[in-house]
Amino acid sequence: MATECKNCPLHTKDLFVSLKPEQLAEMQRFKVGELSIDPGTPLLMEGSNSPQLFTALRGMGLRYKTLQDGRRQVINLVFPGDFIGLQAGVMKEMKHSVEATTHMTLCVFDRGEFWNFFRNNPERGFDMTWLAAVEEHLLGESLATIGQRTASEAIAWTLLRIYRRGEAVGLVTNGHMPMPYKQQDLADCLGLSLVHTNKTLGRLRERQIVSWSEGQLQINDMESLAELAKDDGEPMPKRPLM
Amino acid sequence: MATECKNCPLHTKDLFVSLKPEQLAEMQRFKVGELSIDPGTPLLMEGSNSPQLFTALRGMGLRYKTLQDGRRQVINLVFPGDFIGLQAGVMKEMKHSVEATTHMTLCVFDRGEFWNFFRNNPERGFDMTWLAAVEEHLLGESLATIGQRTASEAIAWTLLRIYRRGEAVGLVTNGHMPMPYKQQDLADCLGLSLVHTNKTLGRLRERQIVSWSEGQLQINDMESLAELAKDDGEPMPKRPLM
DNA sequence: CGGTTGTTTGACGCCCTTCAACGAGCGTGG
DNA sequence: CCACGCTCGTTGAAGGGCGTCAAACAACCG
After folding, report:
1. Does A138 touch chain B (CB under 8 A)?
2. All domains of chain B, ordered by start, with CATH?
3. Does A203 lie at the interface with B, CB-CB under 8 angstroms?
């Protein structure tokens, strides 16, 4: 039973810019269905030319690239509200892969209608650009993290960002944030080895700053964490929802 | 004396998707002037809310972010054809800084007209999204480089990419590519220390793979370079020109 | 109960950083 | 004209953060 756009659980969250009723109707027309996938399922593959675009409705995943020798770089994590497949939408093919970490449900859009949608809804087209610009900005921050921050800074920064994003979409309850990823995923986010990631996490736990176990992330000392992360304290940028 | 869009030296390069005459005319209308700046001049500052957008017409520069403790991460290099300021165009402010490395001349667009332009030219709006998606893709590749490649791989990869991009916009003559950056810039691109960058470059030079001196980049052994860089050999993605 | 996946811990070593110093090129001013 | 300062490239030495190797442990499952 597909969710109707006007009942979308996301578009009321204040992370997203609010949509006018007619825009919701437009999205409803653009939306061709809903997809539900199990943990571990690949959604889009590097080099594929998917006929579909998605926005994550529920669940979490990750986008990654693999070098030819098998090393993997996680580009970013996929949260509810993320738009997936823009690259396939405008370029010929995907340049990275996307896979589900938890069970996910996604709104499905028809790529063939993408251009029509864009032409008929310039406001939404603008929002698409906006979205891409936000993505670009976030990747720039990740670059700065991997390039400049030490392992503990980087891990602190990443956990903080995950927590905040989770808060913004209502995933946090009682200070508990679902954290379904593996340590290996976090390591591949940051270009660190699994072992070093593990030990650094252990140190953060000992210092009572964050605890991450059994798929739950908890922040025990927000102040120390933000300081360690060298977070610049800028609020999470608002973004459109597709 | 401003360059007219229809005489733009760039839009015939095959890196860019070609523009129809009426699109050129539209760009001409959107363009409010031309800016010429000296090496070292900051063009956009992090946190600024610039009223202008640019596309680089001639010259080279770089985009970077600085952490609060002064560490700098170069997000990417700016080449002719790059569109600058999209973030300020859709979000409130710039999230990184841009500065000129060589003398640069840029086409200037009025940010206030951005939305109108977008609405009146859905095709160009689409191209804007396309551009942002290309940027995002390139940042993803940089992430993989910084995160996964070793210093010599990363440096090889970066030099190779610079050379190819230079070729694509006609900057290479006789196998010589202008390389106006400092070693510190390259180091800040890759999250490496200046010293290590220098020594790694020296090793590449000794092995007769690339030589970079006096602002000129030369590739002596393209095959070895591509192999070292673990380049996946995909062609440079075509992109729109604004 | 063996097999698998993910976390944890220890030992060892290297890639890379940091500190330090020197040289080359160049513009400035005495 | 040369001394001086500044920037940038280069090189050596020392140390540490992080990677690699290896193994043990816990949880889950057929």
Report:
1. no
2. 5-142 (2.60.120.10), 146-228 (1.10.10.10)
3. no
